[in-house]
Design brief:
By secondary structure, the chain is of the alpha/beta class. Helix content is 35%, strand content 28%. The structure holds flavin-adenine dinucleotide (FAD).
Length: 407
């Protein structure tokens, strides 16, 4: 027997970092939603489920602050005071360090802390109906609304469907929204490091032809141990071997790539690995459907921009829907959705393109390629205007920002 529930403004499919943030941002403007995830929220927030850490840009932090997460998140963030870029630890480092009055380049958070804070806020927001864990086995989009039939027999109804289901979005596939997609044939191996020297709030991007190697500053551990998050990209064929290494052998390989930068190393978490691909959908809306986050765009993690881009989708969508509401328009109106698609097009294309180029430029092997790269980096180092452009991109403050991501 099917059972219909109250019709809401939004039916958000996927309660990951982007889906949960969207539900809260929409609620901050008075919009109600059904938020559906096939995974169990307690599994998603359990220790060891997602050991990654995310660089949260200045603009994304403003969004979290504007939807009431500042108190819950503030104690868990580690400032990124500077970013250092080097080619294989050779001389010729490129530094991005804002002036003290300009603030930081962002903050690092453990994904688990982000998930915990978001889930708690979702659970206490009356405008959000959370349905998880449950499978969606039928989605319908009609002239007057959308619906999802769930595996427990209920039917959820809303005005607009939002796909926040991550890279393999079934709603996107069903709508036949075509994607440009390629595989980098690499995996990102991640893990938490304790180290004897302070990171001094510097994020390191060390580029090797086999793949980039990043060290991201984290807050000190409970016994004041200095900590960083490691993201080491290795070729797909080497990944299984690297994952199988014992801790000592693994750390020896890590040390080969970063030298004595952070002193003595030990691991403070289990390692895990993620396949890397590029996927980009130019059309991110269809009849009563919009895509947000990785459902619309998935990229290489080297520039730490995937989630930030998804959070800019969130801010933009909420602003467009809020305006529609005030003008008395249907939230699923084609012109309203078109406005969202057009607003997101340039930012998304630029960030995706720049990240892809970065991985390719640093992936070229050989001494002369390395010399050309280091020559280019030395040039940028001497050009304050160009450095400012890159720093604004890292902070997520360039281009036309939606209100929720402004101060
Ligand atoms: C190693 C690594 C490091 C990264 N570092 C950074 C960083 O520093 N900064 C940054 O900005 N980005 C970073 N990213 C990218 C970032 O993690 C992603 O862009 C972000 O997590 C995407 O969130 P999402 O909610 O769109 O998708 P997901 O996290 O994939 O969430 C999708 C959700 O939808 C649910 N779901 C899926 N299918 C269905 C279905 N059919 N029905 C119901 N629910 C469904 C899933 O259970 C899941 O909860 C990194 C990525 C990697 C791999």
């Amino acid at each position: 027997m099917t059972q219909a529930t109250q019709k809401q403004d939004l039916l958000i499919l996927g309660g990951g970092l982007v889906g949960m943030t969207l539900a809260l941002a929409a609620a901050s403007k008075g919009l109600s939603c059904h938020l559906v995830d096939r995974a169990d929220p307690s599994a998603l927030t359990a220790e060891g489920f997602d050991g990654r850490a995310s660089a949260i840009s200045t603009a994304s932090w403003r969004l979290f602050r504007n939807i009431g997460l500042e108190q819950a998140l503030e104690p868990h963030g580690c400032d990124i005071a500077a970013i250092a870029v080097v080619d294989q630890m050779k001389p010729g480092r490129l530094d991005f360090r804002p002036e003290p009055h300009e603030g930081t380049l962002g903050r690092m958070f453990a994904n688990r802390q982000l998930r915990i804070a978001l889930l708690e806020a979702v659970r206490s927001q009356p405008l959000i109906s959370l349905h998880a864990p449950v499978d969606v086995f039928e989605r319908t989009r009609g002239e007057f609304g959308v619906a999802a039939r769930l595996s427990d027999g209920r039917t959820l109804e809303a005005v607009l469907m939002v796909a926040a289901e991550g890279r393999g979005s079934p709603a996107r596939e069903e709508a036949d929204l075509k994607m440009a997609k390629w595989d980098y044939s690499h995996r990102a191996i991640i893990g938490g490091l304790d180290h004897s020297k302070s990171h001094e709030n510097v994020a390191w991007e060390i580029f090797y032809p086999d793949g980039p190697f990043a060290l991201l500053p984290m807050l000190d551990g409970p016994e004041a141990q200095h900590r960083s998050a490691l993201v080491w990209t290795v070729a797909e064929q080497d990944a299984a071997g690297v994952m199988k290494l014992g801790d000592r052998a693994f750390l020896a390989e890590v040390e080969k790539r970063m030298g004595n930068l952070l002193g003595e190393l030990s691991l403070n978490s289990a390692r895990s690995s993620y396949p890397l691909s590029f996927q980009h959908t130019a059309r991110i809306v269809d009849d009563r459907l919009v895509l947000v986050g990785d459902s619309a765009h998935g990229m290489h993690p080297i520039a730490g921009q995937g989630l930030n881009l998804g959070l800019r989708d969130v801010g933009t969508l909420v602003e467009v829907l809020d305006e529609a509401l005030r003008l008395g328009l249907d939230l699923g109106d084609a012109q309203v959705l078109k406005r969202y698609e057009e607003w997101r097009a340039l930012d998304s294309f630029m960030v995706m393109g720049a990240t892809d180029s970065l991985t390719r430029v640093f992936g070229v092997r050989g001494k002369s390629a390395s010399a050309v790269r280091r020559f280019g980096m030395a040039g940028i180092q001497r050009l304050p205007m160009l450095k400012r452009f890159f720093m604004d991109e890292a902070r997520g403050v360039s281009g036309k920002l939606p209100e929720l991501l402004r101060s």
